[in-house]
Amino acid sequence: MRVKALLLLLSALTFAAACTAGAADHNESDVMFAQMMIPHHQQAVELADLALSPVSKARTEIIELAQKIQAGQEPEIEQMTALLTKWGQPLDSHAAAGHGTEMEGMLSEQELTNLASLTGSDFDDAWIAAMTFHHQGAISMAMSVKETGISSEINALASAIITAQQGEIESMQLLSSTP
Fold it and tell me: Roughly what angle, to the nearest 10 degrees, separates helices 60-86 and 120-148?
């Protein structure tokens, strides 16, 4: 009888450990960060596309920075998509999809349209302001998930976002013709 009880207890502990191990690698903050950062990054890629368009007549330095931003954001989108898939979570949520311009640093459709209508130095200055605002929002979101999330992968990604985007903001400040 004792052996049966011991085996039953061991089975229960093994089951509990397996359940806990699967749930302990991420939390709701990690999921929400990935779900919200995907469209946030997609908008950064869209902003980069505007600078890369010949219509913008952007300076060479702006084009190079836009290429760098695009090259950095696309793999991060893939990484967050893979994490959400691994966790069995939808790529977007009603909360993330409903935030739109409520997400920190997101531009409205009208702001994007206005930016796309500019050319030359007017475009450059407006693009720098828009991308700086956008990056500041991403940095804020990344800092927040570092405080509330538990996923080591999201934590590493958030750290990388903070470092890269702070560096890009510094580069944009050097390129800006307005103080």
Answer: 30
Classify residue 91: in a domain, yes or no. yes
Calpha distance 37→83 (Å, rounded): 12
| Domain range enclosing 148 | 26-175
Indicate the number of domains in the chain: 1
Flag whether the pTM goes above 0.85: no
Rounded CA separation 177/92 (Å): 38
Answer yes or no: are the C-beta atoms of 128 and 168 closer than 8 Å.
no
**Each residue's pLDDT tens digit, 139-170:** 999 999 999 999 999 999 999 999 999 999 99
Q: Determine the residue type at 41.
A: H
Q: Which two tokens stand for residue 156?
A: 């590493």
Residue pair 46/66 in contact by the 8 Å Cβ criterion: no
- Does a structural domain hold residue 79? yes
Cβ atoms < 10 Å from Cβ of 138: 26
**Residues 60/126, Cβ–Cβ less than 8 Å:** no
C-alpha span between 64 and 83 (Å, rounded)? 29
Burial of 145: CB neighbours in 10 Å, binned 0-12, 13-18, 19+: buried
